[in-house]
Amino acid sequence: MAIELFRIDDRLIHGQVVVGWGQPLDLTFIVLVDDEVASSEWEQELYRMGVPPEMTVHFQNVEDAAKSLPQYQADARPGIVLVGDIDTMRRFVAAANGSVQHVNVGGVHHAPGRTGRLRYVFLTSAEEQGLRDIEALGAEVSAQDVPSARSVSLDEMLSAVPDV
Amino acid sequence: MSESDSEARALVAGHGDFAAGLVSAVGQITGRGDAFVTLSNRDMSAADVERAMREQVDARGLDVIFTDLPAGSCTMAARRLQRERPGVVLVTGTNLAALLDFVFHTDVPAGEAAQHAAEKGRASLVVTGGAPGGH
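^ Those are the sequences you sent over. The predicted structure of the assembly is below.
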């Protein structure tokens, strides 16, 4: 399978993605799934400037990305699907209709109304339910910011003492 | 943030302790670490990084930002800032040589000094030694 990682990260394209995961996975493309970015040339140019020339970025909304997923998965080169929030991933997993087996929570940072679960994961109750919904759709959810970190299951993540 | 902000001419921003470490080195070598204020993106969302950067730049009237990775969230935040303020100069891939050069060019506008510093930083990357085809 060419898609090595389905990642939720509110920074979207940044150092951990391009270098931290990009180097060990030898990523050659990123599918950035975001309705707003997909409709903004300026935002797309901003993110394109952040990746090395040998890496391609595809910008798509949820619906188009889900339709294109079989093509990406048939690609011999390794790639990553990247979204900025839990609800976008939930909608993508639902639209992909069973094609996503695992979802990586890479960064959902502090914001008003969120409770700290891990150093890099803060969630509202609606977002917690969103992650449970993703698992109910058949995709295992775990948190791991960088490849060398321990993978934390959804149950462990949600039972973590707040603000740890 | 540097020990004294009164003379800050640029913001240095990056991952972890990148900015604080580089500015500490500038201070140790030249005594001019107060030319910079620093920002770490550690455990911050993209929106938080942008907000913090905007506050630093506005509070001190800075128009030069040095960052580490071209793909980093600090660089992304700086580019967003540049959209509103085209006069802001951004240098990515910052290294110690670049910052050292910057602090000694106080006779020109900060943006001009940043251009010169970038050239100096680029030229400072040199590889020596190693046998051809060796391991």
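The radius of gyration of chain A is 15 Å. Residues 3-159 of chain A form a domain with the Fructose Permease fold (CATH 3.40.35.10).

Shout if you want it in another format.
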